[in-house]
Amino acid sequence: MVRLSLAAGAAVLLVGCGAVHPLTSSTSPAPSSGSVVPWLPLAADLMPLPVPSPQAVPVPAGTPACTLAELEAAVIGSNGATGHILTTFAFATRGAHACQLDGTPTITLLDAAGRTLAFKNRDPYFPNEVTGPALVDPGATPGPYEGPKYGQAGLTIDWISQPESCPGEAGVKVAKVKIAIAGAGTLMIAIPDEPAGYRCQGVGVGALADPPIEDDSPPEPPAPDPSIAAPSKVKAGDQLRFVVTLTNPTMLPIDLRAHCPNYEEELFFSIQAGSPPLGGKHFYRLNCEAAGILNPGKPMAFAMVLQVPADAARGIYTLVFNIGISNAMTKFATQATVAII
């Protein structure tokens, strides 16, 4: 799975940004030796990182449907979200073998006296991440607030708990729930004391489903650690040519071609006071094809070029270099001794 990480208080989002002073590849400095990766004005790759879809627990072929006699269920949690009360149930089987549940049950809400409350079934407020069939393994139901585990089917229902959603209607207390499961039968389950519900919005009913399988694919490798070596001064209107050295912070090689970082290079007159970057923002993609593999313990130097505007005010500036994957900067380096003369 590919994930993003944001440095606390320092993440720099790239969306909608570009170089104000575009440069051509002809300005790339020729390396003095083969150890410096040449600079290219490559556009930043701002494509969002893919997020894998949740995966359902596989149900082996031939797994029988659960019967009412072997099912047991319990309320395992209740919480509120934007005026909704969500109640979650978990199902286990007392039988000797696994069984399966499938589909969306029919829900009937009742009060403490056993009277049916007129809540129409509707789609759930939070749709299921995955849908059935759901595998139910032998074992006890989880305790309160433990959450369903693999091999335990879950079900969440919800109702409105705010009177302004149903003007003129009185709230009712829900004490019991009938859960009618196709092919199995109907279970009656008492629920704990919860805020009153308002019938005009009905009751949301999710599907019977196992918790989704967590993705265990390797995460996106971290961005390399940067450091800057830049001249102490540059003339207004000239190109500031400097070198960034990247170090692999992991114990494994990073293929920069497969996970090419973006970077931002900026000059700030007074970064502590929140001054804007000089000449707009400058975002590029690293010259990854030329760089190849960044091995642990073997830093790699990259030539960098930053165009200084001709009308830049003279003074001491902070040079900032940020690097990260996709649209987030996660590693930072600064040099506060660049004078524009």
Sequence-ordered SSE layout with sheet pairings:
Elements: E1 36-37, E2 71-81, E3 84-93, E4 99-101, E5 106-110, E6 116-117, E7 121-122, E8 134-136, E9 153-160, E10 176-181, E11 185-190, E12 203-205, E13 225-229, E14 233-234, E15 239-247, E16 254-255, E17 262-268, E18 283-285, H1 288-291, E19 293-294, E20 300-307, E21 315-324, E22 331-340
Parallel strand pairs: 1-20, 7-12, 14-22
Antiparallel strand pairs: 2-3, 3-9, 4-8, 5-6, 5-10, 9-12, 10-11, 13-15, 15-20, 16-19, 17-18, 17-21, 21-22
State the helicity in percent bands: under 10%
Question: Strand order of the main beta sheet, please?
Answer: 2-3-9-12-7
Low-confidence stretches: 1-33
Beta-strand portion reads 25-35%
Q: What structural keywords apply?
A:
single chain; about 350 residues; mainly beta; Immunoglobulin-like; 5-stranded mixed beta sheet; 1 helix; about 35% strand; elongated; disordered N terminus
Q: Would you mind describing this structure in some detail?
A:
There is one protein chain. With 341 residues, the chain is mostly beta strands. The protein folds into two domains: 25-52 and 220-340, Immunoglobulin-like; 71-205, Immunoglobulin-like. The protein is 1% helix and 35% strand. It has a five-stranded mixed β-sheet, with no helix packed on it. The protein has a five-stranded mixed β-sheet with strand order 14-22-21-17-18, with no helix packed on it.
